[in-house]
Amino acid sequence: MDRPYVAVIGAGQATPEQERVAERVGALLAEAGAVLVSGGRGGVMLASCRGAYERGGTTVGLLPGADRAEGNPFLTVALPTGMGELRNGLVARTADGLIAVGGGWGTLSEIGFAMRLGRPLAAVGSWTVSGPEAGLSYPTVETAEAAVSLVLRQLS
Amino acid sequence: MDRPYVAVIGAGQATPEQERVAERVGALLAEAGAVLVSGGRGGVMLASCRGAYERGGTTVGLLPGADRAEGNPFLTVALPTGMGELRNGLVARTADGLIAVGGGWGTLSEIGFAMRLGRPLAAVGSWTVSGPEAGLSYPTVETAEAAVSLVLRQLS
Amino acid sequence: MDRPYVAVIGAGQATPEQERVAERVGALLAEAGAVLVSGGRGGVMLASCRGAYERGGTTVGLLPGADRAEGNPFLTVALPTGMGELRNGLVARTADGLIAVGGGWGTLSEIGFAMRLGRPLAAVGSWTVSGPEAGLSYPTVETAEAAVSLVLRQLS
Amino acid sequence: MDRPYVAVIGAGQATPEQERVAERVGALLAEAGAVLVSGGRGGVMLASCRGAYERGGTTVGLLPGADRAEGNPFLTVALPTGMGELRNGLVARTADGLIAVGGGWGTLSEIGFAMRLGRPLAAVGSWTVSGPEAGLSYPTVETAEAAVSLVLRQLS
């Protein structure tokens, strides 16, 4: 894949440590030439976009509301979908792989979508889940470096 | 709420026990006068619709594809959305409460959406999840009766 | 087709004559055993639903907002999509045929969708359009009877 | 508005003259610093993207299918929505203004959406429409220059 699209998913309210990881994920994605997709708002979304944007990366925000000004300041392209939380499915759909950092219920919906669609996914300090049958899982890693490396390897 | 809308979510491939629970959930919802919303296909979706339909309940199927014939035979209303898996968000959005029976990754996406939207949710033999911070959970119950009772009580 | 789904499209603010036609369309659809799909709100949408509902027909409302209470009182099933005007595409997508009565810009978007999807469509006192090349047209009729007859004939 | 987003809408099969106009529209939008939004495929979409891309403009393609490779080669960002023709609504929703060049039924749906949302719109050799009441219209112009100038003026 020439230029992979990787979504960084996580909550709009994040801890300083989650923001630090997200910013590093964004920076590494930009350095690898990936396009960063996100929900385009604050917290993990903003931090990852900042990390990518400041290194010249391309960042896409799929906003839930109808107002482009909702987007964070580090978006190359800000798209107000007006679809509310349904845009979470669009984030997973339009990305080739995903990295979850922390996250709330919206992030869990994106994880479900991503796995349903067979997208490579890595989680850092995010949800752990246990399905009704064996074998339903995704990898948990400790660092931004491990997450980016794991996802990009599967997309190359 | 006059007539609550309750989604029954779960996999298109289900075990006999999951189908038995789902059918009972459907029957109880119909007896309570609720409208049953689902993804409209097989497995847990079909079993719950059958349970409701045979007791005169109203069942709505939000189908992923563009062909109404994809729907199971127990739908009062079958709507081919053509939105693919994005229709999962629509299932959660259009229901007042949700009951998960077993389920795969698509079900997890619906659980995430439902909780993000603050919908009452009960799970029977479904996903258990652990969030990045404390307090992110939904109730797990053992029987169809407990699930329906728990959700309808919060909608009354 | 056992039970065709026909959308009645038109503006939320309608003239008494448009409402009269829409109500008659709804009544005829119910008598023919069709399911009536609409945007679920006022004006032409409400009048057509009333016509169908009072004759025991099934009526489905795909609402733009997130609140079921937005729906008119003549809906068998009211689905708040939370997708805003994007739900117009869903109205065309989920119907087998469409009947336009009067209408504003939203109705024009639904006409475009319906024709793009190859759905049979009849218009009563609605938009007339002229495309950039020849042959892009849909039939205009004078009465509710002619519209219902024209669409149902193509769906049988 | 710092950097307006303008959609160029039109058919995937276009005449040489329509492609010439579309390419010029794209070039003018890029020179004005606008972001070009489109359905991301061939014909008018491709020609407008080429015009913008070759002048260093940013081009966004909202693709109907699930495969990024459907996009034309002149997209800064290609997003496979998997929503089918429903993505037409997203094109109108995410743009601040729109320019129609020629076009088929999908273009008409986008025109309806755009006008419903109150977006500035200019049409070159595209649909002309006549609504059920007076005053429902948008401007028709003769040249790419006039279209771009008309839309950008309303967004400044």
From TrEMBL, chains A, B, C, D:
GO terms for cellular component: cytosol. It comes from the Bacteria. Signal peptide: none annotated. InterPro entries: CHP00725, LDcluster4, LOG_family_nucleotidases. This is TIGR00725 family protein. It comes from Dactylosporangium siamense.
